[in-house]
Amino acid sequence: MQTAEAQSVETTAFEPVGPDQNGNEPSPKLTPPLNSEPPDGDNPKPQKPRRKKGRWWFWFLAGMVVGAGSSGYVVHRSWQELEALVPENVDSVLIYTRPGTMTVKAADGTVIEEVGPVSHDKVKIWEVPDVISEAFVSSEDRRFYDHFGVDTQGIARAAYVNFRAGEIVEGGSSITQQVARIVFLNQEMTAMRKMKEMRLATKLEEQFTKDQILESYLNLVYLGSGAYGVTDAAWVYFGKTLDDLTLPEAAMIAGLAPAPSIYSPFVSRQKTIVRRNQVLQRMWEDGFISEPALKQAIATPLETNRQIPKRLLRRYPYFSDYIQAELDRYLTPEQLEKGGVVVETTINPQWQEWAEATLAEGIEKYGRYQGFKQAAIVSIDPRNGQIKTMVGGLDFENNQYNRVTQAQRQPGSTFKTFVYTAAIASGMSPSDTYVDSEFVIGDYKPKNYSGTFSNQPLSLTKALTQSVNTVALRVMLDVGWDPVINLAQQMGIRSEMQPTYSLALGSWEVNLLEITSAYGTLANKGVHQPNYGISRIIDRDGNIIYQAEAKPRQAVDANSAAIMTSMLTDVVSSGTGSNANIGRPVAGKTGTSDKARDLWFIGYIPQMVTGVWLGNDDNRPTWGASSTAARLWGNLMGQITDSLAVENFPAMPNLSNRVGSIEAQPVKNAPKKVTGNKKKKTNSGNSNNSETNTTDSGGNQSSPTPTDRDNATRTAPPRRSPEPTYDYTKKSDTVPPFIPAETRTPAASPAPSTAPTPAAPAPTPSTAAPAPASAPPANPAPPKAVQPAPAPARAPAPAPPANVDIPAPPAAQKREPSE
After folding, report:
1. Stronger pLDDT, 723 or 666, i.e. the higher one
2. Is 140 designated active site?
3. Which of 518, 601, 610 lies closest to 564 in space, CA to CA?
4. N or C: which end of the chain has fewer CB within 10 A?
5. What is the mean pLDDT of residues 603-615?
6. Could you read off the pLDDT of 313-338 as tens digits, one per residue?
């Protein structure tokens, strides 16, 4: 007989039935499947199948295995994803700086400016007093030296304590986690950030020692009020260094870490005191301080001494602004945004401080009496172009205008150096002579400073030493505009210059930096080194982004540079720059613009070139002289040269049979540029006067002037060239009359005529014998230009001292100076 269990697994079968009572064999009976419906009226009770023992354990274990495998796979995948989200290399933690930060350093490595959230002062762990590191360990991570980067017990405790207090009392992250968050993550409150923070903390613990991690933390942690790191905090809150902090002060600083905006003494003194005492209590519990020390520290009143963060203090702001403006040439916005950039500059801090003090003293001592309120100074090493000092003014808080790099001013007679350099380079000798006599071209009648002319021949050296205007003009006309302009540009002048008569007297504006750099070309034996203030730029990873490279060029031949230097030493030893004498070889030149609006001295020794400018931003006249600028130059360079060995300038080369390195292009060959030649006719009407003969206003003939470079013997008068027609319609040829600087309240200079009378045709040269004195000339002279009405007569000015420079005429082709 089959069992119910056997029946339960059958589907359809023939079930044999035993014989009935009569012994007849019944026919087989078809048994329906178990899942079929019973016939109507027949509802037998279903039998429950018997389960095999132990099968549920199988499925339970199988589920456990599958679940464990799935969980393992998920954990593995999660770990892989987490590893992919955290940096593989964590070395940068020791050199980390925050994004958007930049540090500018002087040549000696001292910090002169910091930009962004940067730690001003960083310390090594052995420089941190024990009381400070112990205060932070007790406050932030009591098991710092025991855990592997994540303090699970500390996280649970912090959550419980903060819940009971109803506010943030202590942080849940370990010190290592906080370093990982500062360097690699952000402040977002998400589970993923916390996971990444923990993983990074373990990587830091694997790679660095506890002391290295603690050092990074103490230098990077933000402690409120603009203080990044413990050193900055000691200064901001107490005006002290770390070594000077007391126990309660150290505890107060450590207590700021969880929430500086809450526990700052500048926000709530009461909360600060409570938090400080909590830190002290933990330090006692951890065995760092004794019970008497605890009680004494708690009883100490809270006294602060608020200071401005040092990273916000700027040294040498004019120079710093100049450097930041230069950065766009070397860095992309992305590099600046990344932060951690270190800019190494060429400035010498000690010299810079001397320069600032020199200008401050000059304005205080001379400015109020001589009528100038502003001053600027710059020093450059001519051998490499490095800027060593730059003072663009003394009122940066009120006016950020840099008068070294931004102020375009008329250089006056300092520009004569380029005229004479071109002359010497063209083959002239410093002993060549020109006559100091009246100079007239159309309505342009420049005068010397004294208003008179010596009518005597002067050598180039003496004319430069005495800064004689008429000789400088005649030299420029013999050399030519283009050679002068081209040479000045090669030497370092970048500002616009145009071929006008007043060019020789410094009417075209320049800035102090470029003209000082150009003088450095002569100091460097004719080799121009472009000036610069940035020597190197380093990114946050220590890679060099930019490094300055020397790009010298021979602007002037060495012999011509040596001759010019010798001539310029006479300016200092016996000329207008005598106040710059510092007891060693010095070469330089003074300069004064119209009405003494600009007072200059540019001078150099072989190792250094320095330029000084004095004046007013509004272009008002002064009552000073360029000798004052030379005096300030001497005051500064006298200090700088104490640390520099005495060097002599190159010896004067042999002047015999010299051949010029450039070609002169006399102005008389330029069409319609010159309104007259260097000759002034005599009152006797003699038309036979040569170009090399000039006369004074009294008709006395002067000595021959060597103006024709083709006349080797300089004895026979050259043929007179046709006198060019003066074009009054060109602004570049229109220069108003000169007014002496000593005149305190001069009449206004007449403006150039807008509708001038055209000049008559120029006379043609004549080779015939001169006509009798009573006979009219063969070619009538052109009519005189209409002269402006003379100014009212004034009392004669006293004779100027010998060391006062000669001012240049105003430049009408440029903007009219405001008074």
Report:
1. 666
2. yes
3. 518
4. N
5. 98
6. 889 999 999 999 999 999 998 888 88
Map residue 647 onto helix, strand or coil.
coil
One-letter amino acid of 151:
D
Q: What are the strands, taking DSSP E only, across 311-423? A: 341-345, 374-380, 387-391
Give dist(CA 446, CA 747) in Å, integer: 16
Spatial separation of the C-alpha atoms in residues 376 and 297, rounded to whole Å = 53
Measured CA to CA in angstroms, residue 791 lies from 425, 745, 787 at distances of 41, 11, 12
Q: Is 517 labeled as catalytic in the residue annotation?
A: no
Query: What is the residue whose two structure tokens read 């003939």?
Result: 701
Confidence of residue 33 (pLDDT cuts 50, 70, 90): very low
What are the tokens at 631? 């005096």
Catalytic residue among 320, 413, 502, 749: 413
Residue type, 396: F
pLDDT of residue 171: 57
**Measured between alpha carbons, how far is 570 from 462 in angstroms, rounded to an integer?**
8
**Tokens for 494?**
């970048």
Mean pLDDT is lowest, of 149-163, 370-384, 653-667, for 149-163
Q: Looking at residue 672, what DSSP letter applies?
A: T
Looking at 113, 114, 134, 140, which residue is catalytic? 140
DSSP structure class, residue 739:
-
Counted residue by residue, the chain has a size of: 819
Q: Would you list the DSSP string of 227-290?
A: -BSHHHHHHHHHS--GGG--HHHHHHHHHTTT-HHHH-TTT-HHHHHHHHHHHHHHHHHTTSS-
Residue the block writes with tokens 């100038």: 372
Closest by CA to 408, choosing from 292, 288, 517, 509, is 509
